[in-house]
Amino acid sequence: MTTDVLKNTYTAGALPVRRHAPGGRPQQGRRRRGVVRKILQHALLIVVGILMTYPLLWMLVGSFKPNDLIFLSPGLIPEEVTLEHYTNGWNGLTYPFGRYILNSATVVVGALIGNLVSCTTAAYAFARLRFRAKPVLFSAMLLTLMLPIHVLIVPQYIMFSSIGWVNTFLPLIVPKFLAVDAFFVFLMVQFFRGIPRELEEAARIDGAGYWRTFLQVMLPLTVPALATTAIFTFIWTWSDFYTQLVFLTKPDTQTVSVALRNFVDTTSASNWGALFAMSVVTLIPLFVVFLVGQRFLVKGIATTGLK
Amino acid sequence: MAVVEEFRQLRAEPGARGFRRRTDAERKEERAAWTFLFPWFIGMVLITLGPMIASLVLSFTDYNLLRDPAWVGIENYERMLGDARLHKSLGVTFTYVLIGVPLQLAAALFLAMVLNRGLKGLSFYRSVYYLPSLLGGSVAIAVLWKQLFGVSGLVNQVLGFFGVVGPGWISNPETALSTLILLHVWTFGSSMVIFLAGLRQIPDMYYEASAIDGAGRWRQFRSITIPLLTPVIFFNLVLQVINAFQSFTQAFVVSGGTGGPVDSTLFFTLYLYQRGFTDYQMGYASAMAWLLLLIIGALTAINFLVSKYWVHYDD
Fold first, then answer.
1. Residue B86 confidence (pLDDT)
2. Quick one: closest CA in A to B281, which residue?
3. Which residues of B touch A53 (CB under 8 A)?
């Protein structure tokens, strides 16, 4: 995938050089100008890159600096390294921070399994099976892509609180088993459409039913799409704030997002170090998943326009 | 891109197949389809459609979770007309969307163009630029922002280096919203990746042919790249407007849940949250939710209508 991108962009980029092929000396001048331009472009890209990542690095470094030094210098090299922010931050709330990490992990794992199971089966029906209500249901699914959560959250809250699910993980996990994330259904539909029909037809001729064809022939081929779904689900669920804020109001079920936000409100302005430390802790899983799953992420947003 | 195309195709799709008797195989396929769709369908009814209707009904009631909902007709909607904070929140949100989205898209398009020139290290740069858009929605980044633009934050430290005494960007109602807009622009990476994918689909031969005809880089940009990229720009625009209108986390964390200072960061969604989950005015919050849905729907419709005049499709 990545090499693909590189190959294509390189051929596109090579054009201006090819354009001025005839002529001896002017070509040399062109080439020199091309080199200068390349250097300028790299310089621009590097400066923008530094501007964009500097705040992140500054926070990382700040989490190891003593509080009185964080604001003294904007530099990245700490004069003095301390781990006290991590121990203070870890124990700064009702429960040790590990509890919130565990809560977040529970929600993430639940949502992950739910999305992988439910979105895949729904997508298979939309992509491959013929049924009369398809045009209506498929448009309905596409429309929910654009439906703001804010329209649903009040009735959902009333519903979940009436059955005693508020302050449990259920409102965050159960809907995922019902394929409410239309983005992933759509992503999978796109993917299934790209798989040649012959494979299924062969299986069907051999007497395999629809479920067997799906499980044994199609599913093994959708691993890249499953990976994309898993990675996005992880990132979105881990950094989700709104629904977790609404449904989890007691400390024992709160997730890292909600806990960190409470920490902001309870921490005095002088103790930024601990806040930074816990922010870094919550960003680490995202960063790791980003490093591992980059190519799936890029592919995913390129095909469906996810975040 | 794909989503927009999907909608365009739907419109072209022929209607139902009439009342022909179906074969056994067709019936079997239909049954199988429903077993595959079963969880999705339950979710559609219970988690999406049901709450949507419930929210519409609730918007005509007065309901605080404790007593039964009382029907009040269009009172909630009338109240919205005279609610100064609601008007303020609409102003804040529109400012955020109308400034933040174009700036973010411009940054994304510009860097995608530079990256598409065939420089070495494309995938490295792409990762670096993409990272903020992945992290940007998290509470941790809001915490960072609150610090960056605080009175003694990084921005003011750097300004101090040049002898400038910066204000408390976040505590000043004049500048608080700008810091959030900047945060939005900072997350241009995902739009950029979509632009890059779109740029790759423009066939080289267009550039080759125009070069033979003597077109320069600027001319190529104006007459080939931009027109052929308009479907992608349109797609990004629709998506970003919808997303930006629903921004919540950053304003909530940075302002400590108040939308302050002086309501200068009171996003519509933030005000909705306050009404619904702080004041438990479920009826009023539902009415606001429907207003939000109408606004987003209208903006998307306008986008689609106007697109006829500037988006070029190949077919």
1. 97
2. A154
3. 128, 131-132
Q: Using CB atoms within 10 Å of the CB of residue B25, give its burial: 0 to 12 exposed, 13 to 18 middle, 19+ buried.
A: exposed
Domain that holds residue B225: 77-310
- What local confidence, expressed as pLDDT, does residue A116 receive? 96
Note whether residue B51 is domain-resident.
no
- As for how many domains chain B has, the answer is 1
Q: Which residues of chain B have pLDDT under 70?
A: 1-5, 7-20, 314-315
What is the mean pLDDT for each group of 10 consecutive residues in chain A (307 residues)? 33 36 52 83 92 92 83 74 90 92 97 96 94 92 90 95 95 96 91 88 88 92 91 94 95 94 81 90 95 80 58
The reply to whether residue B135 touches residue A9, judged by beta carbons under 8 angstroms, is: no
| CATH numbers and ranges of domains, chain A | 22-85 (no CATH), 89-304 (1.10.3720.10)
Question: Which of A169, A135, A158, A149 lies closest to B249 in space, CA to CA?
Answer: A149
Distances (CA, A) of A75 to A58, A146, A204, B154: 8, 43, 65, 9
Question: Which residue has 């040049």 as its token pair?
Answer: B162
All residues of chain B having their beta carbon less than 8 Å from the beta carbon of residue A71 are 152-153, 157
Measured between beta carbons, the chain A residues lying within 8 angstroms of B122 are 5-6, 9
Q: Do B129 and A304 touch (CB under 8 A)?
A: no
For B24, the token pair is: 């056994």
B182: domain CATH number is 1.10.3720.10
Is B211–A121 a contact, with Cβ atoms under 8 angstroms apart? no
- CA–CA distance, A166 with A247 (Å, rounded to integer): 5
Q: Least CA distance to B207: which residue of chain A?
A: A15
